[in-house]
Amino acid sequence: MGKNVVILSGSPRKNATTDRLVRAFVEGAESAGNSVSLFRTADLNIGGCLGCNHCFEDPGACVQRDDMIPILKKLKMADVLVLASPIYYFGLSAQLKVAIDRMYALLSEGMPVRRAALLITCGDVSSAAADSAVSMFRQISDYLKWEEAGVVIAPQLHDPNDIDGRPELKQAKELGKII
């Protein structure tokens, strides 16, 4: 039986390198019989967490009525969460980070996610530019008791076509298959 996979992609550039890495993952995941829900957070209206704790008074319900609501609903049924982002100033994009912060709404009731993966693109020549983002991902995974399913980092990418033929596309597809 396939898994419910939720992907939160934080790239503001449509069809650029992060989107292409995500597509490779989706292709692998769907070919293995998994159900995939993809959210491009840059296309959505998601406000920052207000820290009001309404979600603890009314477990899992956020006081904000924005585009995070369908994401929270999908996360309540997800087996796997995949975070995807370009690196901006050595961290995840703001568009992805705001959605991660809003997952706070599910802390009181939990979510069924048991495994998580990270897909990263960056312009730097070294994958070390992603170290802070990978560290954050691992800390969140540890805190929420998610098993790390894998991390794919594709460095030295500037133009959307730079990722064509790169081994990271195959890595992402294979990760999708075994997720």
Characterization of this structure:
- With 179 residues, this protein is of the alpha/beta class.
- It is 34% helix and 19% strand.
- The protein contains six helices and five strands.
- It has helices at 17-31, 54-57, 68-75, 94-102, 131-143, 167-178, and strands spanning 4-9, 35-40, 80-86, 115-121, 147-154.
- Strands 2-1-3-4-5 form a five-stranded parallel beta sheet, with helices on both faces.
- α1 runs parallel beside α6.
- The radius of gyration is 16 Å and the shape is globular.
- The model has no long low-confidence stretch (mean pLDDT 95).
Describe the structure using short key phrases:
single chain; 179 residues; alpha/beta
Helices and strands in order:
Blueprint lengths: L3 E6 L7 H15 L3 E6 L13 H4 L10 H8 L4 E7 L7 H9 L12 E7 L9 H13 L3 E8 L12 H12 L1
Parallel strand pairs: 1-2, 1-3, 3-4, 4-5
Helix pairs in contact: 1-6
